[in-house]
Amino acid sequence: MTLSARLAPRIVLPLTAACMLTGAAAVSDAETLTFTTSRELWQSYTQAPQDHPNIPDVSYAGYRFSEKPLPAVDVVANVREHGARGDGRADDSDAFDAAIAAASEAGGGAIFVPAGTYRLTRVVALNQSNLVLRGAGPRRTILRFERPINELFEPGRGMHGSWYGGLIWIEPDGPQVPFGGRAVSPDAMAATGTARMGQHEVRVRAEDAARLAGHVGRPVKLSWRGDMELAWHIAGHESMRRAHFGNLGGALRDGVLTWHWVNEIESVEDDRVRFRKPLRLDVRAGWTLKIDPDARFIEEVGVEHLSIRFPHVQKKPHLQEDGYNAIMLSRAVHCWVRNVWIEHADNGIIVTNTSANNTLTHWRLMGRRNHHGTMCRAGAHDNLFEHFLIESRPDHGLNTEGLSSGNVWRRGVMRNGTFDSHGMMSFDSVRTVIEVRNTGGPGGRRDFGPFNGRRMVHWNINVTNDRPDWITQPALMPNGAIVGIRGAPLDRRERDLWLMPDGLDKGCVVADMGRVPVPPDLFEAQRRRRLGR
C-alpha cells in the first residue's frame, strides 16, 4: 500500500493531491503506523508546504521571521551611572529602575550592566518597546535575585510563581497580573468570506480595510471563533473526535472555541488584507475570524550577555514552587534572549500570552532540580528556542500548552528533562537536532484537553538513556511525524495514554529510526528553502 493511500482516509486537514506522500519505501505496520524515509517526507513537503498532512511550515519562527539577525542596539544608559554598586551587597534595584527609565525617556536603547554582581530585591520590568538589558558577558555580569515571585505578588487569579511570572518581566505596561489579552476586543473587525490554511489574504469590509491600512507593518491579534469542528481542525486526525477536550484551559466554553494568534499586516489593497505569515487555520462558513489592530504588544526588547542567579535553596514540592523564575515574555513580539545563563531557577524562560516571533538563543540553565526548563503557555506562537544547554534537573523540560503553535526547539542539549506537554492541544510545532537524556514527565489536568494537536514533529533527536516516553510515541502525535530518532525504540503504546484517546492509529508517520535524517535540521531546511538559499 502506498503511503498516500494510507494517509488519505484519515486526514481531516484540508489536502490537495500535491501534498500526498508518495514513494515505494512506504510500509504499513499492522495497518496502524506508516513508515517512509526522511528524504521522501521532505520531498513531499516541498511539493505543498502549506497543507502537508504531517509537516507544518515553521520557517517563520523567530525574531523578524528569522529573516534578519538580532540587532546590536546602541547603549543609552549605564546602571553604574544611576547608582548601582555591583558589589553583591548593596541593593541595586533602584539603580536598575532609574537606568531603565532613562533609556525609556531617550526613546529606547541598551541599558548597560558592567561586570559585577548586582543584588536585586524586586522585578526588573522591561515594560516599553525598544529596551535592551545588556551585560558584559555571563561570566562577568551576574544579576542575583533574592526574592521569588510569590513574595513580590500575591498568588491567585491564575497567578502563582510555580507557573507564572519572571524576575525579568517583559510585558507592555507590566508586570500585569493575571493573564491579559485573551478576550476578543469589541472593536475587532471581522473577515468576510472564507480562506484556506496557508493563504496570506482575507477580505474585510471596505471601511475596515481603510482602518487596517494604517497598521501595515505592525503586529495584530487574530481571533478565530467556532464550534467543535474548529477544535477538531486543530486536533488533526479523525480519531481525535473521541478525545476529551475539557475546557482547553478556558478557551473552549459551551462548545465554542476561541483561538488567538499573532500576525503582521503586510499590505491592504481594496478589501484585501495580506498578512506576513500564512494563515495557520482555515476560515470557514460558520466560523468567525476577527482582526484586532489595537491589541497591545511590546517589541524589540532584549536581554543579553549576562547571568541570572537565584539562592541555592531546595526546590519546594511540585506546584508549590515560590517562583524563582528568570525571564517571562508576555504579549511580546520580535524580542530576544541571547547569551544568558540561568542558575538555580524554578522556571527558566516563560513565553506566554500571545507572545510571538521571539528568539531565545545561546542560553544555559544550570543548578538544582527545578520545575520547567522553558514554557510556551497561553497561546505562544512561532517562537524559536535554539542553541541551548539544560544542565539542571527539570521535572518536565521543554513545555508547550495553551493551544500554542508554530514553535521550534532546535540545536540543544538536555542533560535532563523531556518533550513535555501540559495538554491544551499545542500543534504545528517542531523539535529538531536535540540530544536529550529523557528523565522528565508531562503535566496538566484532564479538563485541559488533549496532550497534542496535529502535526507535532520530532526530527533528528538523540536520546541518550533508551527511554522513549513522550518522544517516540505515535499515539500522542496525531498527524505528526517521528523522524530520525536514535537511542530509543519506537513506543507503540496505544492505551492509558496521557490526555489522549486510546489508539495507535492517529496518522503519525515514522521515518529513519536509528539514522540521522535528511535534511538533518528541519527548521533550517524550511527557512533556507523559503528564502531561496
Total number of helices: 7
Distance between the termini: 36 Å
Class of secondary structure makeup: mainly beta
Total beta strands: 35
* Rg computed from alpha carbons, rounded to a whole number of angstroms: 22 Å
CATH architecture verdict of the domain at 189-292: Beta Barrel
Broad shape: globular
Q: What are the low-pLDDT stretches, counting only 5+ consecutive residues below 50?
A: 1-30
For the largest beta-sheet, the strand count, sense and barrel status come to: 17 strands, mixed
- CATH topology of the domain at 189-292, by name, is Elongation Factor Tu (Ef-tu), domain 3
Proportion of beta-strand residues: 25-35%
Range of helix content = 10-25%
State the CATH class of the domain at 189-292. Answer: Mainly Beta
List keywords for this structure.
seven-stranded antiparallel β-sheet, disordered N terminus, Elongation Factor Tu (Ef-tu), domain 3, 533 residues, 17-stranded mixed β-sheet, mainly beta
Brief description of this entry?
With 533 residues, this protein is mainly beta. The protein has seven helices and 35 strands. It has a 17-stranded mixed sheet that branches. Strands 11, 12, 13, 14, 15, 16 and 17 form a seven-stranded antiparallel sheet that branches. A five-stranded parallel sheet has the order 7-10-20-23-26.
